[in-house]
């Protein structure tokens, strides 16, 4: 068993190493699931086989020692050297391969369940959601807000709230579902979303925008126009790059399902959101690859609702809830 355990941890190290250096795209949910199953099998084997075997061996050792002492007492020898306590403790001790598998099972399964059904941490890797979320923000995502989903396969089994316009949502990137993206929900099923000349209109109604002081982006070392936007009651800030043209470059547009629902022009894009799908946009409007480029997000791709920055090691004042 120690040999099999070594193979398991060797394969785990190779998988994590290749993921870290970018040789392949990892799946942390699947990894936790596999580790939960493997450590559970070790835990069951420990509980019902290995631990009883060690306890039986220890009990047999104690019984043999008692038999020897009783025989010596019968022969008139009262003082007997030797103590089996240390040997008993060694017999009861878990070998390393059980300590690092069965011993970790409770911790791994709790992390797996919490991450799958309650809250999942994410790190913001890009500036597409500036100024709401900055690069390096560590956020929490509510996994049950939009319904309970089975881990790994992401199949919804219990419905809860439907996404609302203005929600900041994490979802599986439709072009590559092994990647998680974060954007703001702009269009709901049946909505007509227009982003023309850098102004957002939903179902023919322009979304209210209020000019704010320009925003200085420390990463690009540039100033951007900043607006307060009210999206169905959700007040948040957006950035607009006045140097960028409003059109969507044709070479940057993916082929995606229901692309016929969208029309592109030099002024922007207009899309009719199909049933069971959502139109997503970043708050950094001219620096976000979103539904304008790769289409709609199907309901089965939803991961959860982002709601709080729990840490940013570069700026502790970033900690807090956001809209």
Overview of the molecule:
- The chain is α+β, with helices and mostly antiparallel strands.
- Helices cover 29% and strands 30% of the residues.
- The protein contains 6 helices and 18 strands.
- The chain has helices spanning 2-20, 28-74, 85-92, 96-99, 105-117, 291-294; strands spanning 119-123, 138-142, 147-149, 156-159, 168-172, 180-187, 192-196, 199-202, 205-206, 208-217, 222-231, 234-240, 262-265, 268-272, 277-281, 297-298, 302-311, 320-321.
- Strands 1, 2, 5, 6, 15, 16, 17 and 18 form an 8-stranded antiparallel sheet that branches. A 5-stranded antiparallel sheet has the order 9-8-7-14-13, with no helix packed on it. The protein has a 3-stranded antiparallel sheet with strand order 10-11-12, with no helix packed on it.
- A hairpin with a 2-residue loop joins strand 11 (222-231) and strand 12.
- Helix 2 (28-74) runs antiparallel to helix 3 (85-92).
- It starts with a helix and ends with a strand.
- The mean pLDDT is 92.
In short:
This protein is α+β, with helices and mostly antiparallel strands and 323 residues long. It contains six helices and 18 strands.
SSE layout and pairings?
Elements: H1 2-20, H2 28-74, H3 85-92, H4 96-99, H5 105-117, E1 119-123, E2 138-142, E3 147-149, E4 156-159, E5 168-172, E6 180-187, E7 192-196, E8 199-202, E9 205-206, E10 208-217, E11 222-231, E12 234-240, E13 262-265, E14 268-272, E15 277-281, H6 291-294, E16 297-298, E17 302-311, E18 320-321
Antiparallel strand pairs: 1-2, 2-17, 3-4, 5-6, 5-17, 6-15, 7-8, 7-14, 8-9, 10-11, 11-12, 13-14, 15-16, 17-18
Helix pairs in contact: 2-3, 2-5
């Amino acid at each position: 068993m120690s040999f099999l355990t070594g193979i398991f941890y060797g394969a785990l190290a190779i998988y994590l190493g290749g993921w870290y250096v970018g040789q392949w795209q990892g799946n942390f949910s699947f990894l936790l699931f596999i580790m939960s199953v493997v450590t559970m099998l070790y835990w069951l084997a420990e509980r019902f086989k290995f631990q009883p075997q060690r306890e039986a061996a220890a009990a047999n050792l104690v019984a043999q020692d008692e038999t020897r002492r009783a025989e010596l007492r019968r022969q008139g020898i009262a003082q007997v050297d030797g103590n089996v306590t240390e040997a008993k403790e060694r017999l009861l001790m878990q070998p390393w391969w059980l300590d690092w598998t069965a011993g970790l099972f409770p911790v791994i399964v709790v992390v797996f369940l919490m991450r799958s059904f309650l809250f999942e941490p994410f790190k913001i890797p890009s500036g597409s959601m500036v100024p709401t979320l900055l690069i390096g923000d560590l956020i929490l995502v509510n996994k049950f807000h939009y319904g309970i989903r089975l881990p790994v396969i992401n199949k919804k089994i219990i419905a809860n709230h439907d996404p609302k316009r203005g929600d900041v949502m994490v979802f599986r990137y439709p072009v590559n579902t092994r990647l998680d993206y974060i954007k703001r929900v702009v269009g709901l099923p049946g909505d007509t979303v227009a982003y023309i000349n850098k102004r957002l209109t939903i179902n023919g109604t322009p979304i209210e925008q209020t000019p704010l002081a320009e925003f200085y982006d420390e990463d690009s070392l540039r100033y951007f126009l900043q607006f307060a936007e009210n999206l169905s009651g959700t007040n948040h800030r957006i950035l607009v790059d006045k140097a960028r043209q409003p059109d969507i470059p044709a070479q940057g547009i993916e082929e995606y399902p229901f692309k016929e629902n969208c029309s592109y022009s030099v002024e922007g894009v207009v899309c009719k959101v199909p049933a069971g799908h959502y139109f997503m946009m970043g708050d950094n409007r001219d620096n976000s690859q979103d539904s304008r480029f790769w289409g709609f997000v199907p309901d089965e791709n939803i991961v959860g609702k982002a709601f709080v920055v729990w840490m940013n090691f570069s700026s502790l004042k970033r900690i807090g809830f956001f809209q």
